[in-house]
Amino acid sequence: MRDLPPLAQHIAHARRLDLDDVGAQVAEDLPAERTGDDLSQLEDAHARQGSLRHLNLHRNAFRDRTMLHSMVRRQADLVRDAEAVARGMDVTLVEVSPRDGLQNESVILSTDAKLDLIARLVAAGARRIEAVSFAHPQRVPAMADAEAVMNRLPRSDGVSYSGLVLNRRGLDRAVASGVDEVNVVVCVSDTFGHRNQNLSTQDAMRVAADVVEGARAHGIATTVTLATAFGCPFEGEVAVERVVELARESAASGVDELCLADTIGVGVPTQVRALTSEVRAAVGDGLALRFHFHNTRNTGIANVVTALQEGVMVFDTSAGGIGGCPFAPAATGNVPTDDVVYTLERMGIGTGIDLPALLPTAGFLAEQLGHEVPAMLPKAGIFP
Ligand code: ZN
C-alpha cells in the first residue's frame, strides 16, 4: 500500500471535527476531486484507528468542500469570460442626471442650467441621455419645462434623448417633443406603485404595454423600467419571482429593453446575479437588459461590476452621483457616472466617456445645487 499523502495522515489523526481547517486545507492541496483510490486509502487508515464514523463525516465534508470549491472556480471562470468579452467593447451608460438626478434634488434648475448640463454631458461623450420626464408638471415641478428643454437640446448625430413617460398622455407629449426613446416605469411593489403613480402594478403594466405599442408605432425606441425590483420602502423584500413575472409581461409587450431598477438603493451583488439569471432564463437573450442602481448604501459600484460580470452592458449613471432618494432623506443619489467610468476604464472596458472632460461637471452641479455632490472621483482625482 502506498504511503498516504500528508494531508490524509493529518486527517487520519484528527481527533475532533475541525472541519473548517481541514476543509480549507483540502481545497488548497487538492485542486481536483479526490480519487476513489485516495478515499479507500483514507478508509483503511481510519479503520486502523477505529474511527470510521469520523472518517465518514470527514469524507462527506471533503466531498462537499471540494465540490463547492470547484463550483466556485467554475463560476469564477464564467465571470472572467464575461469580463473578457466586455473588454474591447463599450459598455453603454445612460446618463440620467438631467432627469432622475435633478428630479430628486430640492433645488430646481433653470431650463438654461439644464441645457448647460446636457451640453457638458454630450461634450464628454454621453450618447444616451435621459433628458426629461413627461410626468404631470404639478406632480413633478422640477420637470415642468420638459418641452422647453427638448426644444433646445444640442441635436448631434449619435446622441439619443429619452423621456420618462408614465402614461399615454405623457407619450403624446414625448412624441410631440421629438424624443428618440421613451422609458416607461412599472413599480414591482403595489404599495410603491400606488404612492408613486397611483396605479397598481398590474394597471401600470397595462399602461406600459399601451405606451410601448404607441411609441413603436412612431418608431421610437422603448424601455420598460421595473422600479423597486430590489426592495420596497413600504413592503420590504421583493420576491425574485415577482420581478421575473413582470419581466415576462414586459417582454410580451414587444419592448426593446428591460431595465431593472434598485429605486431605493438596497440591492447587493448576489441579488444582481440572481435577478439577471432568472430574468434571462424567463425572457431569453433577445431582450436587452439594463440596470439602474442607486448608491444609497454604497453598494452601487459593486452591483454594476457584478451585473457586468453577468454580461449586462447597459447601465444608468448620473454625473456627480446627484439624485438623492425621496424615501431616504440623507441618501446619495444614482450611481455616479464619474466613479463608474473610472472603474470600468481601469478594468479595460470602454464607455465612450472622456473622464477629464466629464470631471468639471461635478463642480458645475455642486455650484448649481448648492451642495457637494456624492461622486468620489471628482474629489480624489483621476489615476494614473
Ligand atoms: Zn432612480
Structure characterization notes:
This protein is α/β, with parallel strands linked by helices and 384 residues long. The protein folds into 2 domains: 81 residues; 289 residues, Aldolase class I (TIM Barrel). Helices cover 51% and strands 12% of the residues. An 8-stranded parallel beta barrel has the order 1-2-3-4-5-6-7-8, surrounded by 6 helices. It starts with 5 loop residues before the first helix and ends with a helix. The relative contact order is 0.11. The N terminus is likely disordered. The site of zinc ion (ZN) has 6 residues, from loops.
> What order do the SSEs take from the amino end to the carboxyl end, as H and E?
HHHHEHHEHEHEHHEHEHEHEHHHH
| Rg on CA atoms, Å | 26 Å
Q: Helix segment count?
A: 17
Largest sheet: 8 strands, parallel, barrel
- Known CATH architecture of the largest domain: Alpha-Beta Barrel
Strand order of the largest sheet: 1-2-3-4-5-6-7-8
Report low-confidence residues grouped into runs of 5 or more: 1-27, 29-34
How many domains would you count in the coordinates?
2
CATH superfamily of the largest domain: Aldolase class I
Distance between the termini: 59 Å
